[in-house]
Amino acid sequence: MLTKTHDVIIIGAGSVGVPTALFCSKLGLKTLVLEALPSVAQGDNKHAIGGIRATHSQRAKIWTSLRSIEIFSSWKEKFGDEIDWEQGGYIFLASREREKKVLQNTVIEQKNYGLNIDYVNSDKIGSLVPGINKDYIIGGTYSPEDGHASPLLALNAFYRKAIEYGTEFKFREEVGKITNNKNDLISIQTSKGKYQAQYVVNATGARAREIGNMFDLDIPVFPESHEAGITEPVKSFFSTMVVDITPKEDKIFGDSKSYYFYQTKEGQIIFCITPDPPIHGIDKSETSKFLPQISKRLINLLPRLSNIKVRRTWRGLYPMTPDGNPIIGKTAIKGFINAVGLCGQGFMLGPGLGEIIAKLLYNENKLTSREKAILEDFSLNRDFTQEEKLK
Amino acid sequence: MNIILKHPILEVPERDKIGFCFENDELFAFRGMMISSALFLNGIQIFGHHPKDKSPQGIFCANGQCAQCMVIVDGIPKKACMTELREGMIIHRCNGLPELPSKDNLRTIGDPSVISVDVLVIGGGPAGLSASIVMAEKDIEILIIDDKDRLGGKLILQTHKFFGSQEDVFAGKRGFEIADILSEKVGFNDNISVWLNTSALAIFSDGLIGILKNNTEYVLVKANHILVATGAREKMLIFPGDTLPGVYGAGAFQTLVNRDLIKPANKIFIVGGGNVGLIAGYHALQAGIEVIGLIEALPNCGGYKVHEDKLRRLGVPIYTNHTILSANGKNHVESITITELDENWKPKKYKEKTYECDTILIAVGLNPVNEFYQKLKQFNLNGWIAGDAMEIAEASSAIYTGKIEGYKILRAMGLQIQKNIDEMIEKAEIMKKRPPQPNITENKLKEEGIYPFFHCNQKIPCNPCTTVCPQAQIVTKDDIITELPYFKYEKECIGCGQCVAVCPGLAITLIDFRKDQKNPIVTFPYEMATRTLEPGENIFVRGQEQILGEFSIINVKVLKKYPHTQLVSIKLPTSIAQNAVSITKHKDVHPKPLEIYSKSKLPDDAIVCRCERVTAGEIRRWIKKGVTDINELKALTRASLGACGGKTCGPLIEKLYLDEGFKEEEITKGTIRPLFMEVPLKFFADSDKKTSKK
After folding, report:
1. Which of B65, B219, B379, B681 is best to mutate for the A interface (most A CBs within 10 A)?
2. SS3 for B346?
3. Would you state the pLDDT for residue B61?
4. Cα(A104)–Cα(B17) distance, rounded to whole angstroms?
5. Predicted pLDDT at B489
6. Among A12, B276, B381, B443, whose Cα sits 20 to 30 Å from the Cα of A46?
């Protein structure tokens, strides 16, 4: 009979799996990452836009993100890798009284959690995003401590650091079967080999449910597809993430929910829209709807973007949960840990969550009360009917 | 001004002079020109500087794919090769990242038009046009889109006569003449609509094709069948100095010279001895540009022997077993360093030679532009493919495979067709075959009468000479198109000269012993002068290798059907007539290498990704660290993330892997995403223009 090969096996080398591996191996846990794709961050991490914010409306997300921001913002100084972090802040726009009210209410909550955020007028927003159409907006929230980084560079930096700490990565290795044994170990049969560990972390993003099904464990994660694009680089003229939360359902603009964009450190404008109705499933093939839809909204809001050239577009999956919050932590199956359902926020929450999960596996007693509260909020056994306001 | 005023083959039209401003200088160019050509015309070849390392940027693809020709036009960043010059434009170099104009205009916003057709043909070159002509015989609606301002694809750049069969593919005619014939047929057909200056941008999974009509209007096309006839793009090489302005593809060069009639260079050096390189050399000479030399890494040129001979006979040195070491110069190419290769393809030491030149043409082969086809297949749409997009071959083969795909589409639509497609496919295979090595045999002159003498020594599919003889005396063995021609002598040659004029290889001379048994009159084809030569003028007669002497012209004749080929008769002693293959106005110029040997930098410094300026060294370092997924490499280095989307560096990166000992199956290729080319955001949101099919 096979004996234990690792302390922790993480399935998925993406936004959550990689930082989790980094922190596990940093604590000295013998860590293996299994990934079906050919290299690191080739699932939906590379489709991510790169926004990193603590301005959520749910406490566990706020706390986790604050820790993530610390990790992202200090990374270059600590380890030297360029991850294109910029503390440009976030703007959530209000274009009507309805959104204004929602935002003003959440600001009160967010301030209670210690966030640096205010509701500001359209002149202030105009000074942050020169050329923004002030006839369209009536104000918005501004949180200067949020920012953005390059998902491509950041994940590669985390990956190399994880290897340095001792994590073993195996690519092009598809998980076929998972079983929990009498000896309290979990074994994983892959396309190439068999491994056994005390803990298995499910960090498979859009495929979370499939993995759960191997244990008859129903994990309510349902992928839906969002569409994104990037332009040529131009001289930097703003660095704030702009989120327009006003849904559109009219003849001119068509149907879509929110969309957001910012200018990267390279100078490119990167943008993403939430289609309405949502596109469920895992099909990522491009459709003709996206470009006209987002272009109309972008140009109406920031006419200066009229002449910037669109370079490429793509679709990425948001692994959604019923309440918009992640599913993190232990399950009924001993040793099987979830790190799934990030609802499109895997990149920004990943490092913060990775650290907590590592602690949970290494020595649960060392978790702080705040970390315990986070795990409680994100538990698979929670009541999923409370929806997050700014998801 | 670097302008071509007279050309031996092309007619130089009256052009309307217009003024514009570049970096505060008032300059002139011609209406209808792209900005890139207007700048070249004025001797400006540096269009800006790269944001990453401030390296000079200029024309590279001349095709809207890369962004190296970016300039600022009236405050807006635009690609110079795709933007037509207008009177009074204010143009600046793009130094570093361009700035978006701060003037904020709200636009009228609306949805793109959606139109339906039976067949959408992407690309109006030889394959797309001939397919459309075939399909238009039936009553169906066809839409041809092409990104250029006229139909014909690369045919319009070809001033030389084509090989192939006259019946099937217009052999013996020049490329641009074939373009005219095909375009006319298309133009007169009511079933075909043509949209020029229109690029395909993306194939969507919902079955719609996103296109940019007239470079300004985004339109979605719904088609039952889509024919991809998008041609090819040029391969590149990696060497130090490979991104200096003055290094570009032979295709871009032909565009500047033969389409825009400008003289972008004075002295060029060509890398690559395939047909593209050989023909580009011939085109350069026609335009009065000196060809310093041509190198080929293999022991023999890969192109047709007749093309090679045409160059050699004009005195161009061809160095086989040679490779480029570097392009040298500060802001522009000033010289090239080449070296000989040993039997293991390694550069020989101490064999380096540096030649002065201002332009280096890279002609090391073509890759199919087939990404649309791959997308069509991925989304299970009715996609078809023809011409170079399917398989790289001669334009004549593209004309033929276009026809085949046209018939196949009709068949798939359930329409009756008369042709036997299998037979056609068989014939297409013959045309696509690589030619065998030339078989050089000494032909002895027959010292009596008059007859055509064939300097044709490679079995290529070509038969114009057999179809023009009024006496029907020129034939090939068993009538096979690839066999060499000979004269049957069953009837007498009447000395009409049609075979001399029609031969695409300029490989037929007429020998006439009737007047003088010792000194025959030899008639040569000549298409290098911008005026008709005069009797009494002196001209050099060439053998295969060298000049045989200077002689006086006794007669010059131009046949009505072949207005650009002069038939020049010269009286020669039999011994010289025996070896004479061509005539030339100039003595051979085999330039001497420069004294200075410009030591090339480490190959690691060579730029692989031109858009993001990523070096071979940077990429090799990651390859050596075990990165085998090109998508990971993209994330790490930004290679392929630039304007062209890896169209140029993609194949180069794969080659770097192979050089490092990886096998193809060990590498994961980079993902290809829409858009096919960069397009201003506003076009996707505009409601100003509304389109109809015509």
Report:
1. B681
2. coil
3. 86
4. 62
5. 92
6. B381
For the domain made up of B603-666, the CATH class stated in words is mainly alpha
DSSP secondary structure code for residue B51 in this structure = T
CATH of domain B17-97+236-362: 3.50.50.60
CA-to-CA distance for A65 and B329, rounded, in angstroms?
A: 52
Residue of A296, A300, A297, A295 lying closest to A310 (CA atoms) = A295
Contact check, Cβ <8 Å, A292/B101: no
pLDDT, tens digit, for every residue of A287-331?
A: 999 999 999 999 999 999 999 999 999 999 999 999 999 999 999
pLDDT tens column, B75-118: 999 999 989 999 999 999 999 999 998 876 667 788 899 999 99
pLDDT for res B691: 60
What are residue B263's DSSP bridge partners?
none
pLDDT at A391 exceeding the cut of 80:
no
Distance of residue B500 Cα from the nearest chain A Cα, in angstroms: 52
Tell me if chain A has a CB within 8 Å of the CB of B96. Answer: yes
CA distance B504 to B502: 6
Beta strands A147-148 and A51-52, pairing class: antiparallel
A1 has pLDDT over 80: no
Which CATH code is given to the segment(s) B115-232+371-432?
3.50.50.60
Tokens found for residue B467: 């179809």
**A311–B643 C-beta distance less than 8 A:** yes
Share of chain A above pLDDT 90, in %: 92
- Topology match between the domains B17-97+236-362 and B115-232+371-432: yes
8 A C-beta contact, residue B19 and residue B88: yes
Residues 293-352, chain A: which have Cβ within 8 Å of B? 294-296, 298-300, 302-314
Listed by start position, the domains of chain B span: 17-97+236-362, 115-232+371-432, 450-584, 603-666
Give me the DSSP letters along A5-58: -EEEEEE--STTHHHHHHHHHHTT--EEEE-SSSSTT-SSGGG---EE----SS
CB distance B18 to B32 below 8 Å: no
10 Å Cβ neighbour count for B573?
15
- Residues of chain B with C-beta less than 8 angstroms from the C-beta of A287: 204-206
Return the residue in A306, A314, A315 with the most chain B beta carbons within 10 A, the one to mutate for interface testing: A306
Rounded CA-CA distance A115/A98 in Å is: 23
Question: Which residues of chain B does A285 touch, with a Cβ-Cβ cutoff of 8 Å?
Answer: 204-205, 378-379
pLDDT at B418: 86
Q: Which of residues 288-347 of B touch A (CB under 8 A)?
A: none
HEC states along A74-121?
A: HHHHHHCCCCCCECCCEEEEECCHHHHHHHHHHHHHHHHCCCCCEEEC
Residues of chain A found within 8 Å of residue B216, distances taken between Cβ atoms: none
The whole-number pLDDT of residue B693 equals 53
Q: How far apart are the first and last CA of chain B?
A: 39
B415/B599 Cα distance (integer angstroms):
65
User: B109: Cβ–Cβ under 8 A, 6 or more apart, which residues?
Assistant: A252, A253, A296, A299, A300, B685, B686, B687
What is the pLDDT at residue B171? 86
Q: What are phi and psi of B79, to 5 degrees?
A: -80, 120
pLDDT at A372: 97
> What chain A residue is nearest to B113 in terms of C-alpha separation?
A292
pLDDT digits (tens, 9 = 90+) for A130-154: 999 999 999 999 999 999 999 999 9
Show Cβ contacts of residue A383 under 8 Å, excluding neighbours closer than 6 positions.
none
Q: Which residues of chain B, if any, have pLDDT below 70? A: 1, 104-106, 589, 595-602, 687-694
Domains and CATH numbers, chain A: 3-50+152-221+323-377 (3.50.50.60), 88-145+223-318 (3.30.9.10)
Strand, coil or helix: B659: helix
